[in-house]
Design goal:
The chain has helices spanning 13-24, 36-55, 61-69, 94-107, 123-127, 161-173, 189-206, 211-222, 228-235, 237-251, 260-267, and strands at 5-9, 28-32, 71-74, 85-88, 113-116, 136-141, 150-155, 177-182. By secondary structure, it is of the alpha/beta class. It has two domains: 5-182, Rossmann fold (3-Layer(aba) Sandwich), CATH 3.40.50.720; 190-272, N-(1-d-carboxylethyl)-l-norvaline Dehydrogenase, domain 2 (Orthogonal Bundle). An eight-stranded mixed beta sheet has the order 3-2-1-4-5-6-7-8, with helices on both faces. It is globular. The termini are far apart. The structure holds 3-hydroxybutanoyl-coenzyme A. 3-hydroxybutanoyl-coenzyme A (3HC) binds at residues 17, 49, 52, 119, 142-144, 146-148, 190, 193, 225-226, 231, 235, 239, 243.
Length: 283
């Protein structure tokens, strides 16, 4: 199936990154946010990163302009009616996603594909909100989406082969390295990364080290590109706690459960980079 127009619902860090990948790959992208202000913020973020690419000779100025011209913003979900693929990147709340997929099913054409960028929720459960679960797949991008090559293309229980292959092809055209996997808790990467990051956070107290020291240990000793505390701050403390809880609920493995230290941070509003403070402070 040929994809020309992509809808992205939710233009936070992940959604804005996905929209950026879409316009850079030549797709028309309709980005939907709940307020015009939030939409504009995402456009500015995308424009900034594309400008940096121009400054570094990775993109021609004209290509940047063309890409930005392919981005349309809306607050109205019905503006996604003509999309061939809609990628959902809203808050990690099952109820909110179920409601959105129910609405999307009413709005977009029956042959359009509906994808979720969920980190740890079940794609099958999200698909069950619709009467056409065969067109629902997972497209799980990694943070920061424009930089991380992997996209997990998640096959839910009732996903049609064509929907899976079309989503895979879109990820490839975005310059990504997609993999296909089944809809198991955490898919491939988060099944491994979430408990590992939780171990890292527990090691802070067990080994009585600071976040700086732990980050040095894992970058200098294990070759990680960024330390675990920097990474959790980037992903978002709230997103990490939610993913841990969702995996713990499904798998009942103690290592999946979020350590009390990070739950307390989430409750105190220390959400990482996006709130200006997490393990570290940000200006
Ligand atoms: N969006 C778009 N462009 C961005 C960006 C973003 N969020 N962040 C940076 N860039 C651009 C910038 O223009 C930057 O150049 P500039 O600083 O000159 O303006 C350019 O990309 C290069 O950025 P960096 O110099 O910071 O790139 P690095 O070489 O340092 O690599 C990294 C950055 C790729 C993030 C690397 O540190 C890394 O691989 N970190 C690990 C990240 C990771 O593990 N992510 C997965 C998290 S788990 C997850 O997402 C799952 C989810 O379900 C929770």
């Amino acid at each position: 199936m040929e994809i020309r127009r992509i809808g992205v619902v939710g233009l936070g860090a992940m959604g804005a990154g996905i929209a950026q990948l879409g316009i850079e790959a030549g797709y028309a992208v309709v980005g939907r946010e709940i307020s015009a202000d939030l939409g504009e913020r995402a456009r500015e973020r995308i424009a900034h990163f594309l400008e940096r690419k121009v400054e570094k000779d990775q993109l021609a100025a004209e290509e940047r302009e063309d890409a930005l011209a392919r981005l349309t913003l809306t607050t109205d979900l019905s503006a996604l009616a003509d999309c061939d693929l809609v990628i959902e990147a809203i808050v990690e709340d099952l109820g909110a996603k179920l409601e959105l997929f129910r609405e999307l099913e009413r709005i977009v054409r029956p042959e359009a594909i509906l994808a979720t960028n969920t980190s740890a929720l079940s794609v099958t459960e999200i698909a069950a909100a619709t009467s056409t679960p065969e067109r629902v797949v997972g497209m799980h991008f990694f943070n920061p989406a424009p930089l991380m090559p992997l996209v997990e293309i998640v096959r839910a229980e009732l996903s049609a082969e064509e929907a899976v292959e079309t989503a895979y092809g879109v990820a490839e055209r975005m310059g990504k390295r997609p993999i296909r996997c089944h809809d198991t808790p955490g898919f491939v990467v988060n099944r491994i990364l979430i408990p590992l990051l939780n171990d890292c956070i527990r090691a802070l107290d067990e080994a009585r080290v600071t976040p700086e020291v732990l980050d040095t240990a894992m970058t200098a000793g294990a070759g990680w590109p960024m330390g675990p505390c920097t990474l959790v701050d980037l992903v978002g403390i709230d997103v990490h706690v939610h993913a841990s809880e969702a995996l713990y609920e499904k798998l009942r493995e103690p290592r999946m459960a979020p350590p009390p230290r990070i739950v307390a941070m989430r409750n105190a509003g220390l959400l990482g980079r996006k709130s200006g403070r997490g393990f570290y402070r940000y200006d």
